[in-house]
Amino acid sequence: MKNLSVYIFFLMFIFCTSCRQNQAKGKIIIITSKNKGIITPGGPKSITRNIIQDKKGNIWIASFDGIFRYDGKSFINITIKVTSVRFFCVLEDRKGNLWFGSIGEGVYCYDGKSFTNFTTKEGLLNNEVTNIYEDKVGNIWFGVSGGASYFDSKSFHNYILDENGMSEDRTGKTFKFRQNNGVGPILQDKTGKFWFGTNREALVYDGKTFSVFNNKEGKAFNNVHSIIEDRKGNIWFGASIIGDKRGDTLFVTDNLWRYDGSNYNKIGSKSAASIIEDKKGNIWTTGSVNPNGAGIWKLSRYDQNYLYNKKIAITEIIATESMLFGILEAKDGNIWFGSMHGVYRYDGKTITDFKGEGSQK
After folding, report:
1. pTM for the model
2. Residue 10: helix, strand or coil by DSSP?
3. Class of the domain covering 34-353
4. What residue segments make up the domains of the chain, in order of their start?
């Protein structure tokens, strides 16, 4: 009996210690083997912002319906038992952990067995997370309302947007509410510089100083929603240029841009909400011809053979009144893209949606 009491005390000690550790590292949510998610008759049916493919070949989808995993046969909503929050972005890190950015509940890290939720309580700058990025040394960056945070596996380091651009905050300040400006896409290029897209002026960071990047007329790029670096080291992004005000009208042009290290070149006349480079070197975009997001949205492919010619060869895959978002080229060459109403797959000939019972073509 005495031994049993000692054993029970030992278990209580381990449990309490674990709780203290978990509280310091984020809220742990355990999902049992019987409760890892729910198989759904199709994919998400609402806004789908981001799609990735993991090392095992599974497709992961961040949507306002939750986080879905597609194994080639069926969809599983793996967060439905965890939270009903809207998800905006997803990343698989080099260790195989999945990170899910939400609107309102910070970020969730999923190791395949349990979820860890990090919020402003743990030092994240803001609980609205619209982008996740892993840098060259393994830090996980988060584009959030009000600025950016990175997690070095021990603690969060925050950068706050202000009238001078962005600066590191060492005071532990966090934002409980939505801010007027926020960081979206984050990229570290081959030279080590960081690029940040924001709702206002876009920034580049050399490790010491944040600078606004401007076009050749000296005007800043605004509303950068996507940034990539291609195989040649060029930086591609979609951005608005705010022109002169004529009467009551403020002229705004929204285009796809390429930066070659010296010059910013306008490529095409459509916006670019999302950009990828495929295995062949073609550039794919989703975007609207209207800078305020209204009108017709298109999934477009820019032929790599003509990217540096005066006349660009563009193939429009689909045109729709529904807003289009993130793009993925899967390992099998299929192109996945998100929309206001779920996720789609393009195999080079046919576009398949996954909104209903099974798939529809």
Report:
1. 0.88
2. helix
3. mainly beta
4. 1-30, 34-353
